[in-house]
Amino acid sequence: LVGLIARTPDMYLYEMQEELREMCNVEVSLLTIWRALKRRGITRKRVSRVASQRDEEARTNYMIHMTATYRADQLVCVDEAACNRATTKRGWA
User: Where along the chain do its domains lie?
Assistant: First the structure.
């Protein structure tokens, strides 16, 4: 179960139940899974996603350039982020 969560931390309890049924041929309740995770100190946490293309050095250089070149009133900010309500907001950690 712990290995399963390490590979897929945003699984739902019913998905863990299905995996245990398929992989180990055992039938356990959702409450049993919840209690087992709790005993190991594994709880639900908010999932934060970081862009895979993120480059901290490039971001720092960009911010230095922007603050040296432009005033705040000269900038227009556009958000290119997308929202997907199907994306899980919590994961196990």
Answer: 2-92
